[in-house]
Amino acid sequence: MTIARNLALLLFVLYSANTLASSPYESLQFGIYKQQIIGDLKKTCHPQKKMTDDAWGNKILAIEDNKLYLRDARIALERNNEKNYLEAISKVECPEM
Q1: What value, to the nearest 5°, has the Cα angle with vertex 70 and ends 67 and 73?
Q2: C-alpha 48 chain-centroid distance
Q3: Are 66 and 93 in contact (CB under 8 A)?
């Protein structure tokens, strides 16, 4: 009985530690993807005004179709699929400045 209880407790602790450890990494990875996408979009769209990346990103996301294209670009980055990534980035409509 104690072996089963200890095994269950060990599995619970390992699962909890794994969950906690992956959260900061996922957040960091999202930030890396976001920076790459914004950097590549700036090369394409050439924003005229000085604005923060977040403000500029929100202008891009204000165009409804861009949400789908940016989602596709992020998924392509996660899957390391450069062809699909570049295709999705090329479809993004640049906002008027």
Answers
A1: 155
A2: 25
A3: yes
Number of Cβ within a 10 Å radius of residue 2: 6
Instruction: Give the predicted TM-score (pTM) of the model.
Output: 0.68
Residue 25: which residues within 8 A CB-CB, separation 6 or more?
A: none
Q: How many CB atoms lie within 10 A of CB 77?
A: 19
Q: Tell me what percent of the residues of the chain surpass a pLDDT of 90.
A: 37
CA distance 64 to 66: 5
Please state, in angstroms and rounded to a whole number, the distance separating the CA atoms of residues 50 and 37: 18
Does the pLDDT at position 6 exceed 70? no
